[in-house]
Amino acid sequence: MDIYEKLAILSDSAKYDVSCSSSGAESNFQEGMIGCNHKSGICHTFTEDGRCVSLLKVLFTNFCIYDCSYCINRQSNDLKRAAFSPRELADLTINFYKRNYIEGLFLSSGIFESEDKTMLLLIKALEILRFEYRFNGYIHLKLIPGASQDLIQKACELATRVSSNLELPSAKSLELLAPNKTQKNLMQPLKYAKDFSLAKSKKPIPMSTQLIIGATPESDFDILKLSSNLYDKAFLKRVYYSAYIPTNDDKNLPAITTAPPTVREHRLYQADWLLRFYGFTYGEILDTRANLDLDFDPKMIWALEHLELFPVEVNHVDRDFLIRIPGIGIRGAQKILKARRFQALSFENLKKLGISLKRAKYFITIRGKYFGEKQFYPEYIKRALTKPVKKGFYQPSLFDTYLPAATGVL
């Protein structure tokens, strides 16, 4: 098997891992046109300053000793298998980089023979890149649960970012669908990585994880509670949510005959944004319900459930509450606070600042005047915000809401 055939197999096998901010989109190649959105191989992630970075997204091998019910690469599946050598993977990465195809590498792997052997092979590939080719670019490495502490620490020295997928939100679900794995085992690499990086530099290496959404019965409350605890304990920089896509027939898996639950996934990303940047707790986001509303974003639902706090005067309210108003994000709040130093803001001033008054007007007064619904009730506001799509106009599908890479909340 030549390296190109291996690349085709192992990049396709990696497409279900979204924790580099990109998952598989189907190819849209058309002869005679420029550009192609391929389902695997090169993906995109986003840096903290908003830059889009191209990565080679690939598995080291899709051989695996585990037999997780939900995984396409599980041991019992009859599929074409392949494995790179450390030299092949390093050569492929550096050649792609020199041709300006990529700016970095996202590397994961099935478990080949044993956890320690797999981790050792990944480390060897990274050593060739870092020391022989002197590659100083971005490398995101998936740590192997069950690998020894020394190998995890060595991997952290070589990688820019590491992750270990928790995969399912509860120990009970793991026992049912992935009996070879436990939450403690899946968390252990992150604990090793955190302790090592803190001891070495007093700053934890950026870490992330991924949860599969919809394969098991956990509620959104359970999922957000888990994510919140992981953020609070400073284990993770980011939690990624992946809508369950049925790839195997198994009696313990749900039968999803329509589209994957991508709208639910999108709402979880929005709620996650509220946890990380807007000062919300998971208990506030879901204080009366177990699951997020699929029709409206979680900040809008929170505001509608707490109308006793609204409307507020936009010229007086402080920054912490300002960012809780639907239609006003972090940057919008900063613009308002800056502009308020010079004058009392008007409706036109807010429009010029780029504030989404279509939503915000129902929750604020501007110089004492209210511009929203005359009847200040949730059902009236919802009705006003839900406009039917006119015949002949484009109506977004469920998949148009799938924006895991940069899902902000206004």
* β-strand number: 10
Principal-axes shape call: globular
Give the percentage of residues in beta strands.
Answer: 5-15%
Strand neighbour order, sheet with most strands: 1-2-3-4-5-6-7
Number of domains: 2
Q: What is the CATH architecture assignment of the largest domain?
A: Alpha-Beta Barrel
CATH superfamily of the largest domain: Aldolase class I
SSE order, as H and E?
HEEHEHEHEHHEHEHHHEHHHHEEH
Using the coordinates above, name the CATH class of the largest domain: Alpha Beta
On the 0 to 100 scale, the average pLDDT is 86
How far is it from the N-terminal to the C-terminal residue, by CA?
50 Å
What's the alpha carbon Rg, rounded to whole Å? Answer: 23 Å
Structural class comes to: alpha/beta
Q: What's the CATH topology label of the largest domain?
A: TIM Barrel
Number of helices: 15
Main beta sheet, described?
A: 7 strands, mixed
Helix content: 25-40%
Uncertain segments: 21-28, 34-40, 389-408
